[in-house]
Amino acid sequence: MVSLETPVCDFGLKAPDFSLPGVDGRTWSRDDCAGPNGLLVMFICNHCPYVKAVRERIVRDARELMRLGVGSVAIMSNDPADYPEDSFENMKAVALEHDFPFPYLMDETQAVAKAFGAICTPDFFGYNQALELQYRGRLDESRKETAPPEVRRDLFEAMKQVAETGQGPQHQIPSIGCSIKWREA
Q1: pLDDT greater than 60 at residue 1
Q2: Which pTM value belongs to this model?
Q3: Is residue 149 in a domain?
């Protein structure tokens, strides 16, 4: 397992559009997922210890961001042939078990992850209402283990600022996680 750190935020970069199947049986686009005050796009998977460490916090933050007018979506881009825990059926089970309040989508071709420039799980992309990138950082101090409950909620605070002002914070700490499991060419 290779651990990677996300690059710095490329402020203003437009969110790529997508059309992906969700575990709910519906096909979702970028605009379907966006809220009136922004969009949080999360590249996650089922097997990654970094994602498992923050899964409950992702759900908590997505619920709170929804109340601020920020929509959220989670996209799974790993190759499930090599990582069966990331299969579409297992995605359905994880979304149900953890009561995901956002669409959980399968990026089977991995084209969406490439369009966003996603490199790891979790990888967070926070957009303002104009769908311009304003945040590319970590959820909080958690790594493979969940950080203490009192740590700063970097992602939530940044997206709250984006919802209120349209601008993300200038100082952002990169997310860290497992590399996306790319298909062999």
Answers
A1: no
A2: 0.97
A3: yes
